[in-house]
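FAQ

Q: What does a record look like?
A: Structure on top, sequence underneath. For example:
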């Protein structure tokens, strides 16, 4: 019989991943550090794999440990969703959710479907804006929650996953071979644009901003028609796109965070429930091959 995984052990495992070590995780889950270590040894015994490797006095995740993070988030999110459905009163009301349009296409179908199954009496109002606008509007209270892009830090929100920013072009065209590279980027102020421009400047690669748009569909169209290259995460790739790397003379860019911000003040129970679903959905979304 296949051994079962303990949800408390998985929650502790995720606390280690999210808070950077055993001692910080121990404070979060309200256990001693030795108890946390014991939980992790039991988890390793169940899986038959080493999840942590020692480096001096510190521990880091092994490759198996890194693989487990996404599975653990999905299992914990499903566990919490199931418990909420059967133990908490049925929620009502409405929640205002903001997201960039590319994230809406990638993340929202699964998130909203699961949320509707769990809380069918809650209305979710969704609007799409870029992250810069969303951060300001959430601070003003126009939205309860928003999925946004973060730079190197979490700022005033919660980073749920990190992605590498990649150079992308059309698989059928070669704009990347032009002497002066045509690029399509988001609007000024966006972390993706800033990181892409900085990488090109540092590499002394001649370029021109051929197109600029806050709309993902417009940017994707420019790429697919071979008009320009762009910078985007793997999670946003579309069929017919290809990644450009060192072999084509493109410098690495950077990584960035995708996560959640909340309006100031106490959220409603419905908004908190949606926030939990959003975090679980962001963490569990699969990368494009």
């Amino acid at each position: 019989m296949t051994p079962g995984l303990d949800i408390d052990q998985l929650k502790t495992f995720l606390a280690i991943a999210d808070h950077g070590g055993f001692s910080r995780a121990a404070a979060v889950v309200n256990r001693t550090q030795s108890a946390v270590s014991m939980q992790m040894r039991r988890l390793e015994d169940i899986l038959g794999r080493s999840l942590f490797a020692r480096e001096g006095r510190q521990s880091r995740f092994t490759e198996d440990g890194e693989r487990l993070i996404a599975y653990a988030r999905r299992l914990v999110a499903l566990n919490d969703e199931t418990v909420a459905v059967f133990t908490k009163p049925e929620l009502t009301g409405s929640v205002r959710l903001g997201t960039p349009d590319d994230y809406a296409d990638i993340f929202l179908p699964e998130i909203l479907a699961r949320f509707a199954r769990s809380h069918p009496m809650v209305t979710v109002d969704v609007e799409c804006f870029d992250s810069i606008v969303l951060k300001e509007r959430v601070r003003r209270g126009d939205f309860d929650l928003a999925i946004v892009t973060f730079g190197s830090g979490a700022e005033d929100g919660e980073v749920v996953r990190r992605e590498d920013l990649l150079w992308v072009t059309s698989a059928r065209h070669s704009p990347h071979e032009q002497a002066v590279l045509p690029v399509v980027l988001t609007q000024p102020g966006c972390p993706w644009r800033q990181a892409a421009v900085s990488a090109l400047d540092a590499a002394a690669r001649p370029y021109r901003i051929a197109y600029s748009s806050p709309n993902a569909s417009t940017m994707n169209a420019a790429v697919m028609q071979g008009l320009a290259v762009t910078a985007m995460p793997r999670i946003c790739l579309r069929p017919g796109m290809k990644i450009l790397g060192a072999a084509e003379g493109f410098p690495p860019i950077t990584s960035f965070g995708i996560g959640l911000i909340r309006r100031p003040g106490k959220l409603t129970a419905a908004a908190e429930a949606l926030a939990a679903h959003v975090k679980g959905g962001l963490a569990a979304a699969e990368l494009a091959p």
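Q: Is there anything notable about this one?
A: The mean pLDDT is 88.
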